């Protein structure tokens, strides 16, 4: 039985994971949704010059100020990306990934709901309020976890889907364990659909996940190496060039470890060099701003816009196996081959 998201059924058991700092925007998400998977826009660091523009004061008729929120500051670009994705993939499923660690998490959550995201995917921690808001507004919610405890709690609080993310994933990591080690206990522990993420590379992995009782998989790294991925060509070339020994774990101001490719910037980090910076974004609840070792927003936005020497290139542990850029259509076909 395919997963039901609101009134829509998931045609193929594949989620393209949200990738922050403009790696997964409407172009990638709509291409995946049109192929029958879930396309995910990441709400992380979409700010542009008009970032203080206010959008609206209500979300589905509720005045956001009554919820103690600022009226949609910083959310203009997210609403625009969702609108464009839905225009390009009117029958597909568009999700929005919002990291709980973001300073403006609630504003972005309300914006995503108001703009018609089919599914909210919450990562990097969670609070009970998110479940209450999604329940009240009849909004499907998936939660990214790495432990049985967090999966059980999410189910009890009202999550519709659990995404188990392993230590082989790209970006920030909640664990360093491999997916095949942590997934079976979590699948066993909850009744709601479970999706496996982190280290899923090919159709063999997809089949293995389904045979364990998972309802689908979420991939990031493979979707970066597609024509439709919104990142700069130089970012994708780093994936093609990567060797196993280039894949490193670094410290992030988010307060979690993260996986990235070796480059001159990461070499400076490994020497524990402090990289002076301003704090133009105030993007993270957990970041000490100008006192942090570096500005994660600045270096992620640099790499995605092409400066892969001075920026941070997030990747999954399997990145060194990527050897060509393909279309989303071909990748989806390859992943679901013989299912
Ligand atoms: C470049 C990049 C950026 C990512 N950014 C985010 C993010 O902002 N939020 C999040 O929850 N996950 C993020 N992820 C994780 C992916 O959504 C996905 O779960 C993960 O990459 C799956 O592992 P895989 O890369 O081995 O397929 C990112 C991954 C990559 C490769």
Walkthrough of the structure:
Helix content is 32%, strand content 17%. The strands form 4 sheets. Strands 3-13-12-10-9-8-7-4 form an 8-stranded parallel β-sheet. The protein has helices at 26-34, 76-88, 105-114, 128-136, 148-157, 179-189, 203-211, 221-224, 233-241, 264-270, 296-304, 328-335; strands spanning 4-5, 8-9, 14-16, 38-42, 58-59, 62-63, 93-99, 119-123, 141-145, 161-165, 171-172, 194-197, 216-219, 247-251, 257-261. The protein has 2 domains: 4-231 and 323-335, TIM Barrel, CATH 3.20.20; 233-304, no CATH class. It is α/β, with parallel strands linked by helices and 339 residues long. It binds flavin mononucleotide. Flavin mononucleotide (FMN) binds at residues 17-20, 23, 42, 44, 97, 99, 123, 144, 165, 168-171, 197-200, 218-221, 224, 314-316, 318.
Give keywords.
binds flavin mononucleotide; 15 strands; globular; 2 domains; TIM Barrel; 8-stranded parallel β-sheet; 339 residues; 3-stranded antiparallel β-sheet; alpha/beta; 12 helices; single chain
Order of helices and strands: EEEHEEEHEHEHEHEEHEHEHHEEHHH
Strand content: 15-25%
CATH fold description of the largest domain = TIM Barrel
Total strands:
15
Number of domains: 2
Give the CATH H-level superfamily of the largest domain: Aldolase class I
The kinds of small molecule bound in this structure are: flavin mononucleotide
Radius of gyration: 19 Å
SS content category:
alpha/beta
Number of discrete helical segments? 12
Major sheet characteristics:
8 strands, parallel
Task: Name the CATH class of the largest domain.
Answer: Alpha Beta
CATH architecture annotation of the largest domain: Alpha-Beta Barrel
